[in-house]
Amino acid sequence: MRRIETVLTIIAVLLLPFIAAAGDDNPWERKLPFEKATIQYTLSGTDTGTEALYIRSYGKETATYRKVINTMMGRTMQNETIHILTPDWSYTFDMVKKTGKKSVNPQKYMIEEYNKLSSTEKAQVMKNAQEMGVSLGMGGKVEMNAEKILGFDCDRATVMGSTIYSIHQSGIPLKIDTAMMGISMQKQATEVKQGSVDAKYFEFPAGITPQIDPDGDAMARSMAQQTMAMLKDPEAAKKTGQMNPMLQKRGKRNTSQDGSSEISDEEMEQAMKAMQGMRNK
User: Fold this and answer.
1) Contact (Cβ atoms closer than 8 angstroms) between residue 166 and residue 172
2) Rounded to the nearest 10 degrees, what angle do helices 214-231 and 106-115 cross at?
3) How many domains does the chain divide into?
4) Is residue 211 part of a domain?
5) Among 39, 13, 66, 9, residue whose Cα is nearest residue 150
6) What is the CATH number of the domain that holds 133?
């Protein structure tokens, strides 16, 4: 995972309190409405292919398997990745290059920082989250239970050039249509199967040992501390622009000399998913 992708993943975690339900003990420790599930997707646009999302432990552990053909700047590249997320670690494997990286799950740092707060500060964090909502300069809006997809009531979020349909208050997307910063991406769930998930999907690929990414860990911890400091500030609602520089400065899609994108569709999607359940105030 390149550095810019790491930033977007961290931003996704930092924004979780804006979609947390009131009364959550810790907005970074939310459970999904089902314990185990498998979701199959088709992808089209810049990336064409398939994706499978395996969920267990109410979302504390996920494994995403993606196989796509990427077309950009007249070049076509085949990409195959596996992303395994645990409460402690985030692992990304490039099955074409046979490489792997790991970094601390940024959500872990947010949980740690939140648990350090006093009860008064925690109340202020949630108050700011509710008041700030989608007013972070991202121009988003949310409609609850806007459409039914595969039998699930879905909330519709429009934000950052994307329209996202997610299972009601779960953050799990069933349909995404994106057109932003050179990305054209459509993602459609074709099946949601609740029930047992084979443990093999959470095993590391044979012959690949993930290497630690210390820079990503340092960045995640620093951003967690800065974000918590902002959210516990009684004046935070008047300083919503503090989050914008991260999105404006970091969230740009660059292209390396080999024609590959520095921001993967998967990582951009994660950043957008984190903003799904936000309510207008």
Assistant:
1) yes
2) 40
3) 1
4) yes
5) 39
6) 2.50.20.10
- Domain containing residue 231: 3-273
DSSP E strand stretches across 95-139: 99-104
99-123 pLDDT, tens digit each: 999 988 878 888 888 889 998 998 8
| Whole-angstrom distance, CA of residue 155 vs CA of residue 171 | 9
* Farthest CA pair distance, the chain: 55
CA–CA distances in Å: residue 266 to residues 36, 81, 165, 198, 272: 21, 10, 16, 23, 10
Give the residue carrying structure tokens 């494994």: 63
Domain contains 278: no
Quick check: is 237 in a domain? Answer: yes
pLDDT, tens only, 44-99: 988 899 999 999 999 889 999 999 998 777 788 899 999 999 999 989 999 999 99
Amino acid at 162: S
Contact 236, 128 (CB under 8 A): yes
Distances (CA, A) of 40 to 10, 70, 182, 186: 25, 19, 25, 14
Among residues 192, 139, 187, 186, the alpha carbon closest in space to that of 170 is found at: 192
279 within a domain of the structure (yes/no):
no
